Amino acid sequence: MKARFLTTGAFAAMTLFMVSYAAKANPGEDLTGVLFGSKKAATKAHIKKVATEYKPSLRAEDNLYANFGTIDPVMWSADGAMDVARFNYEGREIKAFFDVEGQFVGTVENKQFGDLPEKARAYIAKKYGDSDIMEVIYFDDNEYSSSSMNVYDQMTQDEDNYFISLKKGDQEIVLRVDMAGGVHVFKVLNID
Questions:
Q1: Whole-number percent of the chain with pLDDT over 90
Q2: C-alpha to C-alpha distances, 27 to 23, 30, 37, nearest whole angstrom
Q3: In angstroms, rounded to a whole number, what is the distance separating the alpha carbons of residues 116 and 135?
């Protein structure tokens, strides 16, 4: 009986040690394989987890923190050849874009129709008043970068602009609004 108690106690102590050591090494990692004898299964699960996370270039990460300071959490992804960081900054959800060299290109954030310059709101209401507003985004260009960005699958000019997506009948009309309130047709798409 005493030997059985010692064996059970030793097993419990070893299990507790493994759990606490592994949890410190990789917090939040699934330890099922380690605890139940399949180290290979745990290793495969860890490799799969790491393989699905997107890793931007080191230069893009450095430029993100140089431009925005310490922010957490940051969700990284790719958009074509660009690294994209999604994060909250001063209460706003921001997407920051970095070119293939890791240089900061600019940011995109969702806006409301009321955020547009008054001149643009009046023109859009008059000309497209019967359209449904689907999306308003603001592109804030990094003036120090020579890289351009794709917005609605079309290259942007290197300047700050709003983009408004409108649905009118069977078409989606994307308007570009400059900071002075000038409204320009950016793209027209047929909706199937």
A1: 52
A2: 5, 9, 20
A3: 12
Picking from 101, 131, 166, the residue at the C-terminal end of a domain is 101
Whether residue 180 lies inside any domain: the answer is: yes
Give the Cβ contact number of residue 64 at 10 Å: 21
Find the distance separating the first CA and the last CA of the chain, reported in whole Å: 76
List, for residues 6-32, the tens digit of each pLDDT value.
344 433 333 333 333 333 344 444 433
pLDDT at 156: 62
**Long-range contacts of residues 17-22, Cβ cutoff 8 Å, at least 24 apart:** none
Q: Tell me if 106 is assigned to some domain.
A: no
103: exposed, middle or buried (Cβ count in 10 Å: 0-12, 13-18, 19+): middle
